[in-house]
Amino acid sequence: MAAESKNKAAAYRFSRYYAELQAGPTLTVQTKRQEPISIHFAQGSICSSCGLTCLCMVLSAYGLAKPSALENMSHRQSGIAADVWRVLGPFFMTGITAPELKAAIESLSLPIKLSMRHCTSKTNVAQLAVVSEFAVNCLFKGRFTMLAYASLKNRHQHWLTGIGVEGLAVSHAAPAITNVDTLLAIDPADGIQPFTVSNARLRRDVTPRRKASPRWVYEAAGFKSEPVSLVSALCFELLE
């Protein structure tokens, strides 16, 4: 009888997300300020400010602007919050595309490096696959990545703040083989439950039969699940 292998493979679920996030009664992030700050910003029900709202989360998490200043940006006369409103205020009711958002942020001369992948069609399989893998790689590294999805049921498009990933790891040798099947995100259109780091996710089937498909399923407590395409990913890196 052949000797049993001593190196048995172990499979387990894993999650990785932005290291400074702190799950508690409210979702906070530890910045250079003395006290952790809440970073969830809520989008209004009659506006299309999801892109602006997600950006406010990132700026707060990086400590580049105070949440209180961003909440009153339309009344500010100077500072980063006022500058953000100046370049993004015109898109408050109309929504904003990834190229427009990237150009607006870069015009602010913030200590942030941006990289982007964008697809103009929600049915172009090859381009959508590029966007998806870019988003997975950025979030796996613990970088904030704003995600724009397009519904496959209607014309609805929406921005989320991507904060991390989940997936399956198989460890039979170093390093473990990882397979990401879920993107963790904060949806500005929904509230945050206590003791969680996200309130929404994009999930995909990564079985060999479906691995080539760029389709994701959007899931959140406050909304019905729906199939979507990930059309844009805007990755942030804070420069020291």
Outline the structure in words:
The chain contains five helices and eleven strands; from the N terminus they run E-E-E-E-H-H-H-H-E-H-E-E-E-E-E-E. Helix content is 21%, strand content 33%. The chain is α+β, with helices and mostly antiparallel strands and 240 residues long. The chain starts with 9 loop residues before the first strand and ends with a strand. It has a single domain, classed as Cathepsin B, Chain A, CATH 3.90.70. A hairpin with a 5-residue loop joins strand 7 (157-171) and strand 8 (177-186). The radius of gyration is 19 Å and the shape is globular. The protein has a six-stranded antiparallel barrel with strand order 6-7-8-9-10-11. The chain has a three-stranded antiparallel beta sheet with strand order 2-3-4, with no helix packed on it.
Give a topology summary.
Elements: E1 10-17, E2 21-22, E3 28-29, E4 37-38, H1 50-61, H2 67-71, H3 80-88, H4 98-106, E5 112-118, H5 125-140, E6 145-151, E7 157-171, E8 177-186, E9 200-203, E10 215-220, E11 223-238
Antiparallel strand pairs: 1-7, 2-3, 3-4, 5-11, 6-7, 6-11, 7-8, 8-9, 9-10, 10-11
Organism: Rhodoferax aquaticus
Protein name: Peptidase C39 domain-containing protein
Tags for this model:
Cathepsin B, Chain A; Peptidase C39 domain-containing protein; alpha+beta; 5 helices; globular; 3-stranded antiparallel β-sheet; 11 strands; disordered N terminus; 240 residues; 6-stranded antiparallel barrel
- Count of individual helical segments: 5
CATH class: Alpha Beta
Q: What is the chain-wise order of helices and strands?
A: EEEEHHHHEHEEEEEE
For the secondary structure, the number of strands is 11
The fraction of residues assigned to DSSP E strands is 25-35%
- Coarse structural class: alpha+beta
Mean pLDDT value: 91
Task: Please indicate the count of domains.
Answer: 1
CATH fold-level topology: Cathepsin B, Chain A
Q: Do you know the CATH architecture?
A: Alpha-Beta Complex
Organism: Rhodoferax aquaticus
Protein name: Peptidase C39 domain-containing protein
